[in-house]
Amino acid sequence: MPANHLNCPRGDSKHRHPGNGDPAWTVRRLAALAGIAILPLLTACENTRSIASDATQIDGFRAGVVADDPRAALIGRTVIANGGNAADGAVAAYFAMSVLMPSAAGLGGGGVCIAHDAEEKRTDVIDFLPRAAAAGQVAVPGNVRGMAALNARYGNLPFAGLVGPAENLALSGSTVPKALARDLQEFDYTLREDPALAAVFHDLNGAPLKEGDNFRQPELGASLGQVRALGVNGFYSGLLGQKIADGAQAIGAPLTIDDLRNHKVQIYAPVDTPFLDLSLWTTSAPSGGSLVAQAMGQFSGDNSPGAQANVSRQLMPARAQQEGLGGATENPSAATVVAVDSDGVAVACAFTMNAPFGAARTAPGTGIILAPAPNDQGIGFSALAPVMVGSKFNGQLYFASAAAGGAPGALAQALVLDAVMRRALPLDQAMQLPRAFDDGAGQSYDEAGGLSLGRLNSIFCSRGTPSSPDTCQLRNDYRGNGLATILGED
């Protein structure tokens, strides 16, 4: 079948509405949300290119943060400038995205990170994916506990100080960033079912907010304030946790305080795949690290669109069977952050609400959007696939990346990694390579007509860090709306 030059939507969502009406949290509601998954990656449609830092590489490199939201990246860089390391910067950037990108990174969702410490020669996967609550239907929020674990294991600064900037953003207000404005336009039909969401994200005329409009989230700010003051325990077993559980049950979502108390972060060694004379580190199932590793085994220096389509055509049928997806498309909605510092600490994280804006319902009084439980219709986290390349012998780090956009995003990481490490292309040039994807079921896609296949945040250090940090190049994807920020030595 010829490639699909899919036209991007123009704001009229009525033909895409997955279902009307039922305001309760029911199986019908979740089945309706699953309708978004059959859309062939419409959330990745863009006709504009992102803001990017002018310098992707500098002498005197100290640290860098790349995130899907520009203000989040700047907050992460500021945290590092004030004594933090890459892990602290990533945590602060995440909490900022929970305010600025709640469609993909809200407190009700979850994610997965790969973290590396060169000095200790240690690399971990930190898994806090938004898995189903005991009674199903709703996911247990994982992001707060996941970020606390990352900070405790790899960070330098107290956790409270990393939450504070996001709290201030929510309480004081900010302008709607481009990525959020895009999602508000695309998925406005879901927000109208929740009065609290409509009150925050609609203007006085009932239309979705546009880029540059002012908005405040006082209830979310209050919840972040409790996380800052009381830490993880306040969210998972304290008064805030009880408020989240009670609020969820009030709208029919079977989330209990025991679900929150019993939530655990899983920390394990990454899958280690030999790559050149180094290690390719990926996550284990149920996230999508194996897809990147398998694709790297298929690429052989030819990363033309035809070769990309051929690789994905070979890999996707087995993946769909493994994930039990049938013909459904994996959830493409995610937000990512990647950070590195000159001491050799690096982090690559991907976050999701299991669907754009999660279940599009808040736990009343908290400002926290709940996430639906994963299902076999594409709702979920199976495409999250942060990756790193480094040496397990001397601790040097060469590459770190995370992607949004479902399976095409995961495969795009293999494309970029192949380009910079096998073909010696600069990271900036590798990010601009045209992308293609074949779902293995007869449908091919390319990037003609405005479709974007994946949105990456990546770091490439050609001679490794910490030995040669000045060789580190950072780049956010031109297909997204984020920012790559670099901090130099004073």
From TrEMBL:
Gene Ontology MF terms in the entry: hydrolase activity; transferase activity
Residue ranges of the region described as Disordered: 1-22
InterPro entries, A to Z: GGT_bact, GGT_ssub_C, Ntn_hydrolases_N
Name of one Pfam family that matches: G_glu_transpept
SUPFAM superfamilies: N-terminal nucleophile aminohydrolases (Ntn hydrolases)
Keywords (A to Z) from UniProt: Hydrolase, Transferase, Zymogen
Similarity annotation: Belongs to the gamma-glutamyltransferase family.
PANTHER family: GLUTATHIONE HYDROLASE, GLUTATHIONE HYDROLASE PROENZYME
Protein name, entry field: Gamma-glutamyltranspeptidase/glutathione hydrolase
